[in-house]
Amino acid sequence: MKYPKTVKRYCPKCKKHTEHKAELAKKKTMGTAHPMSHGSRAKWRRLATMGNHGRYSRPPGGGKMYGKKQTKKTDFRFTCTTCKKTWTPHQPGTRLKKVEFT
Hints:
Blueprint: E1 2-3, E2 6-11, E3 16-25, H1 30-33, H2 38-47, E4 72-73, E5 75-80, E6 86-87, E7 95-96, E8 100-101
Parallel strand pairs: 1-8
Antiparallel strand pairs: 2-3, 3-5, 4-7, 5-6
């Protein structure tokens, strides 16, 4: 997919539309993105005890999905050219094999 190097977007810090420089960041996994979230802490708390761990006792995928996905979701970072604030949009990224900045 071709994407422009600079794009006009809404800056949450300036509170107006300004030019932003777009770049692609490496997508973080759930373990590195939010290791101290409530769900992660609850999961490790359950796994630290004895007995059946419910959905965490079963193998991931449930036995119906095999293999890897062919692409990862993109993680765009936008840097405002006026205030230099870098931010990530809240919308989930699209699956792309290759991003080319023009």
